[in-house]
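Quick question about two entries, pasted in order.
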Amino acid sequence: MPEEEFLTVREVAEMLRLKPRRIYALAAKGALPCRRATGRLLFPKSELERWLAGAAASGSPGTALPPADILAGSHDPLLEWALRESGSGIASFFDGSLDGLVRFREGRAAAVGLHLLDVAAGEWNLPAVRRELAGRPVVVLHWAWREQGLLFRPELHGRIRSLGDIRGLTVVPRQPQSGAWHLFRHLLERAGLDPQRLDLLAEPARTESEVALAIASGKAEVGFGLRCLAAPFDLAFLPLIRERFDLALHRWAYFEPPWQRLWRFAAGPALHARAAELGGYEVRERGRVLYNERA
């Protein structure tokens, strides 16, 4: 039998393009095949190669390796601005809170923007995180409180005074996997309105900005959206609910430079000034840890 070849922590880090401390963390979890000898970690090359082949074949290496610096989930204009202005280098893919949870679970995103209301529990976001990301290394950080309501064309200002007044108007829908659509359906049903009986556009808006754009361009008359987008698109706004927007983040990613750049920027005066300029935001508790699952 040929003698087994072993790799050091540094050699494995170079092979996987990770930092050495991530290799130590993976080894501690038992996620990487390794041996301990005279106080050192050694990795049998043949076993490591089989592990890599198995991860590639399963199509889900993210279950063991830290995910790429991608922010998925729900769209937030203030967060999108901060990603850019901070120079974080973090990529974004906004297609709804539920879509983001799936991407996180499959290792295709390092963080998820969430605004999911658990009606039975009367709680924002954490029930969904506990249910969908159980056993995964995730921390939930508060981002902002936001005002959600009806965005509509200015000439309808006298007509729309409550949610029931949208009957007969063309409404911008959201994609089914978005937190906004689930929240809007809840508010409609609470008001005695059937979402299926609304006059909805054929194509849903996939971000908050797309809701406002569809109304401003004349494609629709009203939509469920954020107060902060009313003024930029010259729209009227009727407040309906104050919601909590949080970020669920992979614990390993939190300490990486892209995310640290974002947190440092968000702690400074520029973000608070931008939130005040946009309106409809409360960011005093930004960064508060709401949940920490070590896995």
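Here is the second entry:
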Amino acid sequence: MISTQSGSIRLFRVAGIQVYLHWSWFIIAFVELAYRRNQYSTIMWNIAEYLSLFLIVLLHEFGHALACRQTGGTANEIILWPLGGIAFVNPPMRPGAVLWSIAAGPLVNVLLYPLLMAAMWLADDLGWIEGNRDFARFLFMVFWINRSLLVFNLLPIYPLDGGQIVQSLLWFKLGRARSLYVASVVGLATLAAIGIWAVLTLGVERVLQDYLWTCLIALFIGQRCFAGLKAAQGLQQLERVPRHRGFACPSCHQAPPGGPMWRCESCGHGFDPFSTNAVCPHCQARQSATMCAYCGTASPIERWSMAHGGAGQPPIIIDV
């Protein structure tokens, strides 16, 4: 999990959701403003354009967070950084709940699409664009930014929204582990296909010179695809381990695996808290909470119940 505290500035809190801004955002903003300064007659329009990007990404992330809360999940943090935004959400581990939490982000961009088109039409109809090149370009760029973010995030590449939507839909039929595996493979294949197309069409030199920032984003997304693949393999192995049928996670309702898979908070030895009532047999220390191997939620042993349901891990929704 990416830390929201390291190198981040606390901005504000809305509806109990804390918004952070990574310090590197200012460096990228400076570079972008300097690089595109000649697009407008004054740099104030560049600043307005960049702030519009900030607002659109923020609204997108709040779409994820508020939808997650609608499903009964928790969502308390959003971080904005040069690659886009990250909403830290923990919906109930059901495919429908996860699907809505993810799809609500792009839905914000879908709703903004006609509004921004109407704004351009109205400005033209009222004569505000005629003779005002800066304002006309600003309206078009805000519309283009929203459209580009929507299209890009819907690419079937895990962990972009499109890839996670594919994974959530497959989850209904394939289960958590297999759907994550398939979505990660599809994401890597799509990323590779786009990369090969770009090199064959534009050439390596032009790709590295003119699209260096895009290449860095692609490398980051590729790394997250591999992480998803490894997580899926880990879940598949976990599913083959015998489980304690007398317990279930209070969050995802999965029965915990048996065996010494948990580390004692005091001595660090491995043990099975469900066989010892959360008391370490090595040092006799009682554990304050036991973490679910499937969803990562830590709960006191008393809260584990007989209820059973779907499995999964809390997603980190990453948007670029």
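Reply: The beta strands are 8-14, 17-22, 74-81, 84-90, 262-263, 270-271, 290-291, 298-299, 316-319. Residues 307-318 have pLDDT under 50 and may be disordered. Hope that helps.
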